[in-house]
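Forum: Protein Structure Q&A
Topic: Joint prediction for protein chains with partners

I've read a bunch of threads here and the consensus seems to be that you should model interacting components together rather than docking separate models afterwards. I'd like to see that in practice. Below is the full input, 122 residues plus whatever partners are listed. Could one of the regulars post the assembled result?
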Amino acid sequence: MNLNFEAHFDADSTSVRRARETDSEVTIIGDTYLVAFEDSEDVHEVELTDTVDGWRGMCYTVDHNGERTGHCPGLEYHDAPCAHLWLVRSQCVRPVLADGGHVEAPPAGDDGHVFGRPELVR
Ligand SMILES: [Zn+2]
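Posted by a regular:
Agreed with the consensus. Here's the joint model:
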């Protein structure tokens, strides 16, 4: 789906606050991101790309085997990005440049783990 982060940005929104203030782990698996907030058992799989035409992404719930089980409840009931999407946007996504290249990847461990930088949300 198309996502308009700028139009929905509100520092007091539940999703933005959660992305900023809750400890989290993000693991990069190929082109997707597994997001787990420290205070939740749930793992969500985020697809997010910054294209020249804007942000495109989706957030899925996944089971213990990593199989997608549905759309993130944060997206089902709102048209604003969920906390998982805000988090991935701030931490991980490398903008696709007009020439199709990527900017440099963020620092990550050998296992692809990216350490939480919630202060970088927007
Ligand atoms: Zn989500």
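Residues 2-116 form one domain.
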